[in-house]
Specification:
The protein contains 14 helices and 15 strands. It is an alpha/beta fold.
Length: 392
Amino acid sequence: MYNILIAKYGEIGVKGKNRYIFENKLIRNIRTMLKAIGEFNVYKEYGRIYIDVDDTNYMQVAQEVRKVFGVVGVCPAVKKEKDYELLKETALSMLSEEIEKNDVKTFKIASKRGDKTFKFTSQEMSIDIGAYVLKNLNNENVKVDVRNPDVMITCEYRNEHILVYSSSIEAYGGLPLGTNGKAISLLSGGIDSPVASWLVAKRGVDIEAVHFHSYPFTNERSQEKVRELAKILSKYCGPIKLHMVNTLDIQKAIAEKCNEEETTILSRRFMMRIAEEIGKTRYCDALITGESIGQVASQTMQGLVCTNASVSMPVFRPLIAMDKVEIIKIAEEIGTYETSIMPEVDCCSLFSPKKPVTKPRLERIEKSETKLDVEGLIKSAIENATMEVISY
């Protein structure tokens, strides 16, 4: 029955004269997303985007399109030549299928008159089509319910053709990837940073990632875990450039020369600086972290102040006010959770102090850093960093 998908977008609709830029980007992103399963005709009409499909692939295609940022919903639909009688027959056919498949007892017809020259208004169309459907359905158990129907059949009489659809698959919304600059994410193997990366990418931001490890003190499996997380994110974000940075020398220097309780916050400031320097060379305009207020010792208000003071680049923290339960829910939805909870030793826990400072004072942290060759350690770490491209 279905021969087309309607990809509906949200915020793009209020972009005024720039809307076509976002629409065209969204079309390219949908085509890119679908490349893995085939070549599809993706095109636009006023206010929406279409993808030609058939009964054998429409659901698979819809599941891929819903992952494209900017799309708020995907409707499998029937598109036919412009003919009002054909519109009524198609509505009847779709309702009959819904009754058979889903045991529907009540329905509603919602109409849209795209062709303003048509003799009926949208409301008159709904009444007329509803009457036709009831008369020809020959099923006394099925009734009209305009307030809370089991299914709503939407009928569109447009300038070029007719459309009939009954359901919408919810998508993630946001803005098309690549329309809001680029940021670099501090990607660990935990639950939070992949979710933070995904949320910022959802706002149209291209993502690169930097991962810090302490090989050989941490094993290669921890790096593989991060590669797998980047791979999952690339389903939504496209290929991700992943920078691998070994911070073992930095952590050793901190452990040897600074107070143990300041180890975590000092390490964090090094990571931020390194991410910023790499980000500058990669034309990134912001950093992304998975920090949430009070979650761990380095994420207290005072800890975040000390972390922020180490860089001049804006820091995006989309999880800052979220509970762990909320973060886990998103991680499960996007498919990173099961990988994130795999047990591995990361570089942060390797030198973690027994009693980390929870209310660090910036002047004391900066004084502690005078004991370290900050610039030299950062330069060495960046020079020895590697970069790989991760794609799904």
